[in-house]
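Dear colleague,

Thank you for sharing your sequence with our group. We've completed the structure prediction you requested, and as agreed, I am returning the results in plain text so they can be pasted directly into your records. Please verify that the sequence below matches your submission; if there's any discrepancy, let me know and we will rerun it promptly.
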Amino acid sequence: MLKTHFILSALFLAATSVTQAQTTTPAKVPGDQGAASVNKNLEKNPDNKGLQNAAERLKTNKEKHLEQMKKREDHKEMKTERHEMKSERQGGNSRPEKPGRPGK
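Please find the predicted structure tokens below.
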């Protein structure tokens, strides 16, 4: 019984420490790991055309990704504003009551 309690306590502590470790790590940004690897290899082999091409592509992809994220944020804000304006015109989210069905 004591052994089971000890094992369950250990599992609980392990699970909570894993979730804390996950929440304290910084957010991953797409392309960071690839850029780090390519840059490390470029330091070793600066004349490698393939690595130069990869570094340039990673740079343009990151720029495209940032532009796309900005567009998504702008679209989300615009959608929220439209929803707020629509609900103000209608006087909130209330709906007119529907008449009851005949025969009931």
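Summary note from our side: Helices lie at 2-24, 32-44, 49-89.

Kind regards,
the structure core
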